[in-house]
Protein backbone atom coordinates (compact mmCIF):
# COMPACT_ATOMS: atom_id res chain seq x y z
CA UNK A 1 0.00 0.00 0.00
CA UNK A 2 1.39 3.36 -0.95
CA UNK A 3 0.85 5.45 2.18
CA UNK A 4 1.80 8.74 0.53
CA UNK A 5 -0.45 8.26 -2.46
CA UNK A 6 -3.38 7.18 -0.30
CA UNK A 7 -3.04 10.17 2.02
CA UNK A 8 -2.62 12.65 -0.81
CA UNK A 9 -5.59 11.11 -2.62
CA UNK A 10 -7.55 11.24 0.63
CA UNK A 11 -6.64 14.90 1.09
CA UNK A 12 -7.83 15.64 -2.45
CA UNK A 13 -11.06 13.77 -1.72
CA UNK A 14 -11.38 15.75 1.49
CA UNK A 15 -11.11 18.92 -0.57
CA UNK A 16 -13.76 17.62 -2.97
CA UNK A 17 -15.96 16.59 -0.07
CA UNK A 18 -15.47 19.98 1.52
CA UNK A 19 -16.46 21.68 -1.73
CA UNK A 20 -19.55 19.47 -1.92
CA UNK A 21 -20.20 20.17 1.75
CA UNK A 22 -19.96 23.90 1.09
CA UNK A 23 -22.37 23.48 -1.81
CA UNK A 24 -24.84 21.70 0.41
CA UNK A 25 -24.35 24.18 3.25
CA UNK A 26 -24.73 27.19 0.97
CA UNK A 27 -27.99 25.92 -0.43
CA UNK A 28 -29.34 24.78 2.94
CA UNK A 29 -31.27 21.79 1.74
CA UNK A 30 -33.57 23.77 -0.52
CA UNK A 31 -31.58 23.45 -3.70
CA UNK A 32 -33.54 23.89 -6.86
CA UNK A 33 -32.22 24.16 -10.34
CA UNK A 34 -34.65 26.65 -11.83
CA UNK A 35 -33.47 29.94 -13.25
CA UNK A 36 -36.07 31.88 -11.30
CA UNK A 37 -34.63 31.02 -7.90
CA UNK A 38 -32.05 33.25 -6.33
CA UNK A 39 -28.82 31.78 -5.14
CA UNK A 40 -27.38 32.83 -1.77
CA UNK A 41 -24.13 34.74 -1.84
CA UNK A 42 -21.01 32.90 -0.78
CA UNK A 43 -19.81 34.00 2.64
CA UNK A 44 -16.72 36.18 2.85
CA UNK A 45 -13.66 34.02 3.32
CA UNK A 46 -12.24 34.40 6.83
CA UNK A 47 -8.49 34.26 7.42
CA UNK A 48 -7.53 30.67 8.08
CA UNK A 49 -5.74 29.64 11.29
CA UNK A 50 -2.32 28.16 10.59
CA UNK A 51 -0.63 27.92 13.99
CA UNK A 52 -1.30 24.24 14.60
CA UNK A 53 1.33 22.25 16.46
CA UNK A 54 3.09 19.36 14.76
CA UNK A 55 1.39 16.96 17.17
CA UNK A 56 -2.02 18.35 16.21
CA UNK A 57 -1.21 17.98 12.50
CA UNK A 58 -0.03 14.40 13.09
CA UNK A 59 -3.27 13.64 14.93
CA UNK A 60 -5.19 15.12 11.99
CA UNK A 61 -3.38 12.78 9.56
CA UNK A 62 -4.02 9.78 11.82
CA UNK A 63 -7.73 10.61 12.02
CA UNK A 64 -7.90 10.99 8.24
CA UNK A 65 -6.47 7.51 7.80
CA UNK A 66 -9.31 6.15 9.93
CA UNK A 67 -11.89 8.20 8.01
CA UNK A 68 -10.71 7.06 4.59
CA UNK A 69 -12.81 3.85 4.32
CA UNK A 70 -15.96 5.73 5.36
CA UNK A 71 -15.24 8.51 2.86
CA UNK A 72 -14.67 6.02 0.05
CA UNK A 73 -17.92 4.21 0.77
CA UNK A 74 -19.81 7.51 1.00
CA UNK A 75 -18.36 8.67 -2.30
CA UNK A 76 -19.53 5.46 -3.98
CA UNK A 77 -23.03 5.89 -2.52
CA UNK A 78 -23.18 9.52 -3.64
CA UNK A 79 -22.14 8.60 -7.18
CA UNK A 80 -24.81 5.87 -7.29
CA UNK A 81 -27.42 8.28 -5.89
CA UNK A 82 -26.65 10.90 -8.50
CA UNK A 83 -26.61 8.43 -11.37
CA UNK A 84 -29.83 6.75 -10.22
CA UNK A 85 -31.53 10.16 -10.29
CA UNK A 86 -31.20 10.27 -14.06
CA UNK A 87 -28.35 12.78 -14.31
CA UNK A 88 -24.66 12.29 -15.03
CA UNK A 89 -22.00 13.20 -12.49
CA UNK A 90 -20.60 15.81 -14.89
CA UNK A 91 -24.00 17.42 -15.42
CA UNK A 92 -24.67 17.44 -11.67
CA UNK A 93 -21.32 19.16 -11.04
CA UNK A 94 -21.96 21.63 -13.84
CA UNK A 95 -25.36 22.67 -12.42
CA UNK A 96 -24.04 22.76 -8.86
CA UNK A 97 -21.06 24.89 -9.85
CA UNK A 98 -23.26 27.31 -11.76
CA UNK A 99 -25.49 27.66 -8.71
CA UNK A 100 -22.49 28.16 -6.42
CA UNK A 101 -21.24 30.93 -8.68
CA UNK A 102 -24.66 32.54 -8.79
CA UNK A 103 -25.02 32.03 -12.53
CA UNK A 104 -28.58 31.89 -13.77
CA UNK A 105 -29.30 29.08 -16.13
CA UNK A 106 -32.24 27.62 -17.91
CA UNK A 107 -32.63 23.91 -17.39
CA UNK A 108 -34.91 21.40 -18.97
CA UNK A 109 -37.62 20.05 -16.70
CA UNK A 110 -35.84 16.67 -16.83
CA UNK A 111 -32.49 18.13 -15.69
CA UNK A 112 -34.15 20.23 -13.02
CA UNK A 113 -36.06 17.27 -11.59
CA UNK A 114 -33.05 14.95 -11.77
CA UNK A 115 -30.74 17.52 -10.18
CA UNK A 116 -33.15 18.24 -7.33
CA UNK A 117 -33.68 14.52 -6.68
CA UNK A 118 -29.93 13.88 -6.73
CA UNK A 119 -29.18 16.87 -4.48
CA UNK A 120 -31.73 15.63 -1.94
CA UNK A 121 -30.18 12.16 -1.92
CA UNK A 122 -26.67 13.60 -1.66
CA UNK A 123 -27.72 15.71 1.32
CA UNK A 124 -29.19 12.68 3.09
CA UNK A 125 -26.00 10.71 2.49
CA UNK A 126 -23.88 13.64 3.63
CA UNK A 127 -25.84 14.00 6.87
CA UNK A 128 -25.36 10.32 7.68
CA UNK A 129 -21.66 10.42 6.84
CA UNK A 130 -21.09 13.67 8.74
CA UNK A 131 -22.51 12.05 11.86
CA UNK A 132 -20.34 8.95 11.48
CA UNK A 133 -17.25 11.07 10.77
CA UNK A 134 -17.91 13.25 13.81
CA UNK A 135 -18.08 10.14 15.98
CA UNK A 136 -14.77 8.83 14.62
CA UNK A 137 -13.05 12.21 14.99
CA UNK A 138 -14.22 12.55 18.58
CA UNK A 139 -13.31 8.92 19.41
CA UNK A 140 -9.79 9.72 18.24
CA UNK A 141 -9.62 12.60 20.70
CA UNK A 142 -9.91 15.54 18.33
CA UNK A 143 -12.66 18.12 18.47
CA UNK A 144 -14.60 18.86 15.30
CA UNK A 145 -13.64 22.53 15.11
CA UNK A 146 -9.96 21.70 15.18
CA UNK A 147 -10.37 18.99 12.55
CA UNK A 148 -12.35 21.28 10.26
CA UNK A 149 -9.89 24.12 10.86
CA UNK A 150 -6.93 21.99 9.83
CA UNK A 151 -8.80 20.68 6.77
CA UNK A 152 -9.55 24.25 5.73
CA UNK A 153 -5.98 25.32 6.43
CA UNK A 154 -4.71 22.47 4.24
CA UNK A 155 -6.83 23.74 1.37
CA UNK A 156 -5.92 27.41 1.78
CA UNK A 157 -2.48 27.64 3.37
CA UNK A 158 0.66 26.66 1.46
CA UNK A 159 2.45 26.57 4.84
CA UNK A 160 0.09 23.94 6.26
CA UNK A 161 0.10 21.99 2.97
CA UNK A 162 3.90 21.88 3.10
CA UNK A 163 3.97 20.75 6.75
CA UNK A 164 1.39 18.02 6.20
CA UNK A 165 3.01 16.85 2.97
CA UNK A 166 6.39 16.59 4.77
CA UNK A 167 4.73 14.56 7.53
CA UNK A 168 3.17 12.28 4.92
CA UNK A 169 6.56 11.81 3.24
CA UNK A 170 8.28 11.11 6.56
CA UNK A 171 5.60 8.59 7.49
CA UNK A 172 5.98 6.92 4.09
CA UNK A 173 9.75 6.67 4.56
CA UNK A 174 9.20 5.03 7.95
CA UNK A 175 6.74 2.55 6.44
CA UNK A 176 9.13 1.79 3.56
CA UNK A 177 12.17 1.32 5.83
CA UNK A 178 10.19 -0.92 8.19
CA UNK A 179 9.00 -3.06 5.29
CA UNK A 180 12.57 -3.46 3.99
CA UNK A 181 14.03 -4.66 7.31
CA UNK A 182 14.29 -8.43 7.65
CA UNK A 183 12.23 -9.98 10.39
CA UNK A 184 14.08 -10.71 13.62
CA UNK A 185 14.69 -14.38 14.20
CA UNK A 186 12.64 -15.87 17.01
CA UNK A 187 14.11 -18.08 19.63
Automatic annotation (TrEMBL):
Keywords: Signal. It comes from the Bacteria. Residues 167-187 are annotated as: Disordered. Residues 170-187 have a biased composition (Polar residues). Residues 1-35 form the signal peptide. Pfam families: DUF4168 (PF13767). Residues 53-163 form the DUF4168 domain. This is DUF4168 domain-containing protein. It comes from Arachidicoccus ginsenosidivorans.
Amino acid sequence: MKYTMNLKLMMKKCAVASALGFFLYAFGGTTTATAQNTVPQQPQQQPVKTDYSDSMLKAFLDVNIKLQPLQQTAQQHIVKSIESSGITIDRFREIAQAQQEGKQQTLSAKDSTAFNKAAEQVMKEKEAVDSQMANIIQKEGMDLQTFQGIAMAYQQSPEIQEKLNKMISAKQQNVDSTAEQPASPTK
